[in-house]
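Long-time lurker, first post. I've been practising inverse folding by hand and with some scripts of my own, and I keep getting stuck on stretches where the structure tokens seem ambiguous. Below is the full token string for one chain I'm working on. Before anyone asks, I'm not after the true native sequence, just a reasonable design that respects the backbone. If someone could post their per-position residues I'd love to compare against what I wrote down in my notebook.
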């Protein structure tokens, strides 16, 4: 198991993108969720507003599926969570699974999340068509 690296203050993903250190590629993928409550879906998960979020609805596991049109190299996943605001919905564990399609996904990393309120940088280098969290 790997413990996530905390993003240092002032080094948020949007700032790193503006400086050219990282490139956001989520817009190149099709996103889907295992479930969501109305008004708490992919749009809220992907917007840049820290006040909006995805809220699952239904039985576990709760999944975020990211499907690229072709094999894509992903080096870092950045996830923001606010335990104080959303403690019952904040994940305690994130499993990263990759594959060429949804039928051959293999877990490559499992991150144990700490109680936090900031962005977690999950370092994992993968080349895949489908990424599931």
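-- Answer (accepted) --
I ran through it position by position. Result:
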């Amino acid at each position: 198991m790997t413990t996530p690296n905390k993003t240092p203050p002032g080094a948020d993903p949007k700032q790193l993108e503006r400086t050219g250190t990282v490139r956001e590629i989520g817009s190149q993928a099709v996103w889907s969720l295992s479930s969501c409550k109305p008004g708490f879906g992919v749009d809220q998960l992907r917007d840049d507003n820290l006040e909006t979020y995805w809220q699952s609805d239904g039985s576990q596991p709760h999944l975020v599926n990211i499907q690229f049109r072709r094999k894509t190299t992903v080096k870092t996943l950045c996830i923001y969570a606010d335990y104080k605001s959303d403690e019952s919905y904040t994940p305690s564990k994130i499993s990263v699974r990759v594959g060429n399609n949804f039928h051959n996904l293999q877990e490559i990393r499992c991150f144990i999340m700490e109680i936090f309120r900031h962005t977690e940088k999950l370092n994992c280098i993968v080349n895949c068509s489908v990424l599931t969290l």
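A couple of notes from the structure itself: Residues 74 and 126 are 5 Å apart (CA to CA). The first strand starts at residue 5 and ends at 6. Happy to go over any region you disagree with.
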